[in-house]
Design goal:
This protein has 18 helices and 10 strands. By secondary structure, the chain is an alpha/beta fold. It folds into 3 domains: 326 residues, ABC transporter transmembrane region fold; 158 residues, 3-Layer(aba) Sandwich (Rossmann fold); 73 residues, Rossmann fold (3-Layer(aba) Sandwich). Helix 2 packs antiparallel against helix 3. The two termini are 29 Å apart. It is a multi-pass membrane protein. This is ATP-binding cassette domain-containing protein. It is found in: Cell membrane. Keywords: ATP-binding, Membrane, Nucleotide-binding, Transmembrane, Transmembrane helix.
């Protein structure tokens, strides 16, 4: 299994993916940036200039001058700037909120689609809790990153550049000091960004692992309780959380060292700007208003640069959290539609395995030159010892995995050349342990159908699959929520719901993978009757551990060592001489099941 908590995309890959998600809404985000730029210019350039002009006029005020006559224009100008600044800020805020909200939802949806597209085997190998945790962390890191870029990084950049431009005009020696020490500050940030970034990623990995483990335990709480594993799981989570603390403290140490370097640079900048400004004032090179601008911009730039590192740290930390999900969604799917794949059309329902080869591990082939032809409307049972590849055969028909060799054809169409969605629409599948969505019984039966659930059609198939037998005793009936993975229902009840769903789908090809294994004898008799009605118009492939399930099928194949070793009807296989595998399985079964 991949080490999910140990992998993350690079910063460049993460930024590229986030930019891709934001691209449809770049008009809103760039509009917000433009309004924010104007607002900062108004508030941090124009307003200080008005203050400087006021100070200059105070220094040169003459006896008898009136308030309005001396300062009226500046008072009006300042009022206009205050109002304009607020309007521009609100416009920036509105556009940025709309753009980031749409990017946020688009990011979740796009990433969710990519995760779904990674396929059956990928999801088996990756803990669902950690995957969900990574998606959640990414979505919030994305929107926080947009906020940080616009309201912090951009605003600080504009303030610093404005200060340099203004001081370059009115007191260029001070501007030189600011530029030089800002350059030193940037060099410190660049030099220290590597250790800070790595420490942030370590924290993100530790946090995701702890959160994912806790989520996994909660999802499987019945297993933990039955196994009396509460204390062990609590200790495990406690240990992981201790790792989170250690990782965060390491990140904090890196941050503190960097902050010391930055603090020295900022102190030198503030002192240098003040010293040069005082020297210029003593020499009479600048007026009192310019002295105000020097002091204002020296303190403002110093404070904003200090703030910038905290914001950059938050941004880097967010990129570290986002990088885990970007790494996941950047994985190449194992099963993809071929270029120009056509929809599968199934007029008859013939199914053929043509020299199929498949293995989960290259050194251990599971199916070797597997060949089987199922005629339209034929019902074929598949039996064999555990590990012989019976269930794998059913998953290959659904193309949950790709073959290593050979072909699977439905009505002479290679399923590898058809779209996955059209293939799966043509196949009804009832597994040994159906997984229900955390929705109502009606919604689970209706799943895969278009439009709102039709209760009349749902009740019709539910009655045929004997779902109504237990639903009628539930207080909320078909609106009963089945719980996560359907765990509020028994195994037999889940199978009946899955059978009802397959009946409603009414696909031309039906696959039953141990579909009656969890039913008691009475329920099995009823459900088998329903399955016969379901199979009446379908080509059926039935995998069974309970041989009584398949005794009346048209044909039975015995799979052993990845090959078909016997084929025939139930009666024919029992009468083989010498005694074959099927007869041995039949004679050794217990209570209708194969013996261990």
């Amino acid at each position: 299994m991949d080490d999910l908590h140990g992998e993350a995309a690079t910063t460049r890959e993460t930024i590229a993916y986030c930019a891709e998600l934001a691209r449809p809404y770049r008009g809103l985000l760039l509009g917000a940036a433009a309004f924010l730029f104007l607002a900062v210019v108004v508030q941090d350039v124009a307003s200080p200039l008005v203050f400087a002009a006021v100070l200059d006029r105070i220094a040169t005020i003459k006896r008898g001058e009136t308030l309005w006559g001396r300062f009226g224009t500046l008072i009006v100008a300042y009022a206009v700037l205050l109002l304009l600044g607020q309007v521009l800020m609100r416009m920036a805020g509105w556009l940025e909120w709309e753009g980031s909200l749409k990017t946020f939802t688009h990011g979740i949806h796009r990433s969710f689609e990519r995760l779904l597209g990674l396929g059956y085997r990928w999801h088996i190998d990756h803990p669902a809790g950690e995957v969900a945790s990574s998606l959640s962390a990414f979505s919030w890191a994305l929107v926080d990153g947009i906020d940080t870029l616009e309201w912090s990084i951009l605003r600080i950049l504009v303030i610093v550049l404005s200060a340099v431009v203004v001081l370059g005009v009115v007191a260029w020696p001070v501007a030189v000091v600011l530029v030089a020490l800002t350059g030193v500050f940037v060099a410190v940030v660049v030099k220290r960004s590597g250790p800070v970034t790595e420490a942030s990623r370590d924290f993100s990995r530790a946090h995701s692992r702890a959160e994912g483990t806790a989520s996994d335990v909660i999802r499987n709480v019945s297993t933990v309780l039955v196994g009396a594993g509460e204390h062990a799981e609590s200790a495990r989570v406690r240990e992981l959380l201790d790792g989170v603390v250690r990782a965060d403290l390491r990140a904090r140490r890196q941050f503190t060292v960097t902050r010391v370097w930055m603090g020295g640079t900022i102190a030198a900048m503030t002192w240098g700007a003040l010293f040069v400004g005082v020297v210029l004032a003593l020499r009479g090179d600048i007026r009192s208003g310019v002295v105000y601008l020097v002091l204002f911009y020296a303190s403002t730039v110093s404070q904003e640069l200090i703030t910038s590192f905290q914001e950059i740290r938050n941004l880097v930390r967010g990129l570290g959290r986002a990088g885990k999900l970007v790494h996941l969604v950047s994985t190449e799917p194992e099963v993809v539609d071929a270029p120009g794949a056509a929809d599968l059309v199934v007029p008859e329902g013939a199914l053929r395995f043509d020299h199929v080869r498949f293995s989960y591990r290259p050194d251990r082939p599971l199916l070797a030159d597997f060949e089987l032809e199922v005629r339209p409307g034929e019902h074929v049972g598949v039996v064999g010892p555990s590990g012989s590849g019976k269930s794998t055969v059913t998953r290959l028909v659904l193309r949950l995995m790709d073959l290593q060799g050979g072909r699977i054809l439905i009505d002479d169409q290679d399923i590898a050349g058809c779209t996955q969605s059209s293939l799966r629409r043509a196949v009804s599948y009832v597994p040994q342990d159906p997984q229900m969505l955390h929705r109502s019984i009606a919604e689970n039966i209706w799943y895969g159908q278009d439009g709102e659930p039709d209760l009349d059609r749902i009740r019709a198939v539910a009655d045929a699959a004997f779902v109504d037998e237990f639903v009628k005793d539930l207080p909320e009936g078909y609106e009963t929520i089945v719980g996560e993975r359907g765990l509020k229902l028994s195994g037999g009840q889940r199978q009946r719901v899955a059978i009802a769903q397959a009946m409603l789908k009414n696909a031309p090809i039906l696959i039953l993978d141990e579909a009656t294994s969890s039913l008691d004898s009475e329920s099995e008799r009823y459900v088998q009757e329903a399955l016969w009605r379901l199979m009446a118009g379908s080509t059926a492939l039935v995998v069974a551990h309970r041989l009584s399930t398949i005794a009346h099928l048209d044909r039975i194949i015995v799979v052993e060592g990845g090959r078909i070793v016997e084929t025939g009807s139930h009666r024919e296989l029992l009468l083989t001489s010498p005694v074959g595998t099927y007869r041995e399985l039949w004679e050794h079964q217990s209570g209708g099941f194969l013996s261990a």
